[in-house]
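Example (one chain per record):
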Amino acid sequence: MSKYELVIYWSNEDNAFIVEVPELPGCMADGATYQEAVANAERVIGEWVETAMNLGRSIPEPRGRLLYA
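Predicted structure:
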């Protein structure tokens, strides 16, 4: 399980749950169910990181949850 923030929402246009990974530019996934969307996001995160490593690009560290005072 990755430690990157996931933004998950329902898209009427796509008729699917959409998952965005804000810390990894362009990293998105979808799924017919919430669970499927999260599982697909985990796979895509792994592929994103692997591709970045192969290209010699930096990989952002997960920031974790931001706390507000």
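Caption: The two ends are 28 Å apart (CA to CA).
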